[in-house]
Amino acid sequence: MFRIRRVFDGVLPRDARTVEQVQALLRERFPGVEEKEIRQIPAMLRDPLHHRFRAVLFVAESADKLAGFALMLHVPDVGFCWLDYVAAQPGSAGRGVGAALYDRVREEARFLGGIGLFFESLPADPEFCKDVSLRKENRARLRFYERFGVRIVANTKYETPLIDEPAPCPPHLLFDPYTAKKPLGRKDAQQVVRAILERKYGGRCPEGYVDMVADSFRDDPVRLAEPRYATPAPPPAAQVSPQIALTVNDRHEIHHVRERGYVESPARIDAILKKIEPSGLFEHLRVQGYPLRHVTAVHDPGMVGYFRAVCARLGEKEAVYPYVFPIRNQARPPRELPRRAGYYVIDTFTPLSRNAFLAARGAVNCALTAADSLLDGQRLAYALVRPPGHHAERRAFGGFCYLNSTAVAANHLSEFGKVAVLDVDYHHGNGTQDIFYERADVLTISIHGHPNGAYPYFSGFASERGEGQGRGFNMNLPLPDGVDGEAYRTVLAKALKRLARFGPRFLVIALGLDTAKGDPTGTWRLTPTDFEKNGRMLGRLCLPTLVVQEGGYRTSSLGPNALAFFRGLSEGTRERTRNMECAE
Questions:
Q1: Which pLDDT tens digit goes with each residue over 246-305?
Q2: DSSP E strands: which ranges in 41-115?
Q3: What positions does the domain N-acetyltransferase occupy (predicted)?
């Protein structure tokens, strides 16, 4: 078994090692490739504008070992894709690695649109290739591509050698009709040929060579040779490729406060899943277990230890509600665990139950699994969790929140680069602010209802900007009641400008759907159209993005609003990618 993922820039340690493995395999499978070209792959990934095309690298991996790769070049100013190399490890024949990689390449080319996907392949015809052993290998390669419906571009001088001396095997130009929305026109083909010969082969082309080859395209539409080596299979049905890794706290139901009016219920997760799963945008990931040190890295170990211990001692139907709070003396917690609850909690409606710790720990594991998918090369990830977490501070919990999954994931990602946390829940993310308030490597921004009238009431004011090294790295944008989508986007744009100045490596979004019209805990009026527009704005940042579910309590609108947000997020990311505007 193997999986295919995209490597965006080779900056993260794992990706850097993968790129080195790709370079080694390229040397082995294509010994004629110049070392200079091999060495420039990392630069091609990081700086597309310098090379006048954007490199798209897909790798097939089995047990974290490279099974194969495909390197495609996207040329947006002309509007086509070029398959540079596709290769599998020796001995992997029959495993379908090459076919899976090519399928992924043509899927990406089809999405990017334009003229279509082109590449070269050496000929199997004695007219062009005199070496019998090479012809056999070339025939196998052409057979492979013809099964996909790929065709040789015929009746041109593309096979003319670059130099006067006869070349042993000048390549054919190949075109994959599946990736194009219309037949290949002569002018389009000429543009493609000029771009490839000038940008890829540049100094190797003799004077007049590019014009000669381009002018040799006379047919309109361009003539494509009939398949000679294989019978093409029917093209696959068009489908939406999963773009967002999804982790779900599948044991969240064990935490259920069955009191009338308690809105943080298991139905929230089911309502979202029911709507987003049929969209085809999401790919489920298996949730991994993580050591508790990830939690105690952001939460006071005393609080975590208490939370774990008190939950373990409670019976199936028991619950502890805090009712005594240490305003005068915070240094001496009560000896009895039930009475000690108020020492670590900020309100009276976040009860401790037998399963609260287990459910909160499961939510943390979901967020960490989704965060690690970004480190593995995923661009977008969604941790659909409950209980929520953004009200949980370093040494206190509340607001339905026990452990701050958003902060735990952000802290984990901060080991690999700067992180921006954007909280778009209706309620201020006081816990995330508290945890990162003195840090400059994690920027925290929260757009929320004004604390004069919205929970948690005692934090979220614009004057709270961070302390010590974190001074200036906390931004609160409190808003009044009745905010609509247009007013919200004006403030969101302000937040994104601050985020851009920070220049994060990762973006973590604390997603609250309680900003929606009719939510029982909020006063704003956002609609599905607004959520889609907000998601598109965030997607256009082109950052590896983790979304962690926080609030949202109007069950009937949760699914439509979540789906609209993620459609916008995905499309915003892909729009910028299509136009080569992402800093990859």
A1: 999 877 676 666 665 566 678 899 999 999 999 999 999 999 999 999 999 999 999 999
A2: 54-62, 65-75, 80-88
A3: 2-185
Residue 351 φ then ψ, to 5°: -75, 155
DSSP 503-553: --SEEEEEE--TTBTT-TT----B-HHHHHHHHHHHHTT---EEEEE----
The pTM of the whole model exceeds 0.90: no
Give me the architecture of the 291-300+360-577 domain, per CATH. 3-Layer(aba) Sandwich (3.40)
For 381, how many CA atoms within 13 A lie in the half-sphere containing its CB? 30
- Delimit the domains of the chain by residue range: 3-216, 291-300+360-577
Class of domain 3-216: alpha beta
Active site positions, annotated: 391
Q: Select from 220, 223, 237 the least CA-distant residue to 175.
A: 223
Report residue 439's pLDDT band, with 50, 70 and 90 as the boundaries: very high
Place of tokens 């099974």: 67
Q: Which contiguous run of DSSP H or E holds residue 384?
A: strand 380-384
CB 401 within 8 A of CB 549: no
pLDDT at 270: 93
